[in-house]
Design brief:
- By secondary structure, this protein is an alpha+beta fold.
- The chain has 20 helices and seven strands.
- A hairpin with a 5-residue loop joins strand 6 and strand 7.
- Helix 9 packs parallel to helix 11 and helix 11 packs parallel to helix 13.
- The protein is elongated.
């Protein structure tokens, strides 16, 4: 019985050990499967911040649990990509260089092309094309050694992009650029296999850009639309901003400026939505160049100012220097490491003390630098706050002064109007009396505008919906007319207008309506009517006035020698750069287009 008991105990012990080993093997298998699945997911998350965050969290969990070299390298690599998406290029380069070093130590050769690709892109974002080209070539050499078709396709495209960027940066002519051949070679490889379809977007975009530069806009539009289709299918939002940009440029330079600006604005809004400040900066530059090419210098300067502000705020030039130094330090450290390993065993003990002292010294220096930077930043912040307070105070004072100025101008104009009114009581000549009344009416029109500006918080904008009815009522009163005696309809689709346009426009309306009252309705049997329309067109203000009077003689409009009012209208139209059209069929119709950007 005792032997049987011991045999049973031995059987149970071996069963327990086998169970433990079995659980360990299952745990290892599950870990390996989980890691492989996560690596595959990470490959499709290059430009999706949410997926990247998820993958980073999962790799961290695996690394904390198993302390695996592969998960540690991917954790650094994905951290670099996430930092790059958030425009933190200095941190991105540090993580990318660290992941490159650890991947080489762990012999993760399949990951090396992707890491070099990321390093190249970081240099490219800061226009350091020589360093970007070196990184792309290293990645391409390793991808060819690995027979990795996907990475060969990506790095050929990247190498072409860097070559094109370098040539653009240094002003080399587009017809001597060989980057198109590299892109077409990679595109041919990608189109040959459906599994590489999602890789097509950057090639279509870059080829579209190339044809934009060659001024072959039909081909640029063709490849741009192919890029939009693939980017939309795979939700490649950052790539989609490039597709929209290049097709927008093609439309604009081929003559369809409205369509071009629409696509460029789509690219801009999408880059803002996905929080890509560098793309926003590039699109501002594209829009500025488009407007400059068509002579629209006001909008060109506006977008150029936004571009330069982003260049300064993102510290592009500083990033170029920092990123270049980081990779150079890494390459130098790699060489030094090989030499240091030979003497490491003999010098280890003495180095420990040196490192301790050096670390303490560096810590003190670091603390001193931090304190100094804190003091400098605090002083600058205080100065900036004080400057902002002064600017706000000056702005408030300026608004008060502007309102006071409009108030005084209004009062002075009313005094002049009153003097003219008194003068009319002493004048008996009908012609002189008509001249004085017309002058007084013009002064009243300007006075109404200044009164409107005085009553508003914004002293540079005229409320057209309030101004025009008051102006028309004033004209009616000057002629002794009742509002019920004439059918007047107004369609005012503009709320606020700059005073520089509103003032001459108000005088034009005053002259036209006054002349209509004076001349259009003489000996008419039907009831007088008048319609006034004012609204926005494509980058312009449109004014239309028509009546059912006897019609203005076209000879008088073409050659207004004896009519001061018509002369004044034409002078004011020329002053604001307007284009007028007048017809006298069924009354008088006057249409006026004024260049104006809201």
């Amino acid at each position: 019985m005792l032997k049987i008991k011991y045999v049973c105990l031995l059987i149970f012990a071996f069963a327990g050990i086998a169970s433990v080993f079995g659980q360990g093997n299952n745990r290892t298998v599950n870990y390996r499967q989980s890691l492989d699945s996560l690596i595959n997911k990470a490959k499709t998350a290059a430009t999706n911040p949410d997926t990247l965050r998820y993958c980073i969290a999962r790799f961290k969990k695996i690394n904390d649990q198993f302390h695996d070299n592969t998960s540690a390298v991917y954790l650094e690599f994905l951290g670099a990509k996430y930092a790059s998406l958030n425009s933190n290029f200095s941190q991105a380069m540090q993580l990318a260089v660290s992941s490159l070093k650890d991947a080489q130590k762990s012999k993760l050769t399949q990951l090396l092309p992707e890491i070099y690709s990321t390093i190249g892109n970081l240099h490219k974002e800061n226009t350091n094309y020589p360093m970007a080209f070196i990184a792309a070539q290293k990645g391409l050499d390793i991808a060819r050694e690995n027979n990795d078709t996907l990475e060969i396709i990506r790095l050929l495209g990247m190498k072409a992009m860097f070559k094109r960027g370098y040539n653009l940066h240094f002003g080399y002519p587009i017809d001597k650029d060989s980057s198109l051949e590299l892109r077409l070679e990679a595109l041919k490889m990608a189109e040959a296999n459906p599994k590489y379809e999602r890789e097509l977007t950057p090639f279509y975009n870059n080829i579209a850009q190339h044809y934009d530069l060659l001024k072959d806009y039909k081909k640029a539009e063709y490849y741009g639309r192919k890029g939009i289709a693939v980017a939309t299918k795979y939700n490649q939002k950052r790539s989609l901003t490039y597709s929209y940009s290049f097709i927008g440029i093609a439309y604009y330079y081929s003559g369809d400026r409205t369509q071009g600006i629409m696509y460029l604005d789509k690219a801009l809004q999408l880059s803002i939505a996905i929080k890509q400040p560098y793309r926003k900066m590039e699109i501002y530059d594209d829009i500025s160049r488009c407007y400059e090419s068509s002579g629209d210098y006001k909008d060109a300067f506006n977008y150029l100012s936004k571009y330069r502000w982003l260049v300064d705020s993102l510290q592009v030039r500083v990033n170029v220097k920092q990123l270049g130094e980081l990779q150079i330090k890494y390459e130098s450290a790699k060489k030094d490491e090989s030499l240091a390993l030979l003497n490491q065993a003999n010098l280890e003990k003495s180095k420990q003390l040196k490192w301790l002292l050096g670390g303490a010294l560096l810590f003190l220096v670091f603390v001193a630098i931090l304190v100094y930077l804190y003091i400098v930043i605090r002083r600058k912040n205080n100065a900036l706050t004080a400057s902002n307070v002064r600017i706000n105070e000056q702005s408030t004072k300026l608004q008060v002064l502007m309102k006071e100025l409009h108030h005084r101008v209004k009062n002075n104009l009313q005094i002049v109007s009153s003097l003219l009114n008194l003068q009319t009581n002493r004048v008996t000549d009908p012609e002189a009396l008509a001249v004085l009344n017309a002058s007084r009416q013009r002064i009243e029109a300007m006075s109404i505008i200044h009164n409107s500006l005085y009553q508003r918080d914004n002293a540079n904008k005229v409320d057209m919906k309030k101004f025009l009815p008051v102006l028309l009522n004033n004209i009616l009163e000057s002629f002794g007319q009742n509002r019920d005696d004439i059918d007047i309809s107004m369609e005012i689709l503009i709320d606020d207008m700059d005073v520089d346009i509103a003032m001459p426009l108000g005088l034009i309306i005053n002259e036209w309506v006054t002349n209509t009252y004076k001349h259009a309705y003489n000996s008419m049997s039907e009831r007088p009517s008048m319609h006034i329309y004012i609204g926005y067109g494509a980058n312009q203000v449109k004014l239309k006035m028509n009546d059912n009077g006897i019609g203005i003689p076209m000879a008088l409009w073409e050659n207004p020698k004896g009519s001061f009012g018509v002369k004044l209208v034409k002078i004011l139209i020329k002053q604001i750069g307007g284009i007028s059209r007048v017809s006298n069929t069924g009354g008088t119709t006057m249409e006026l287009d004024i260049p104006y950007v809201k």
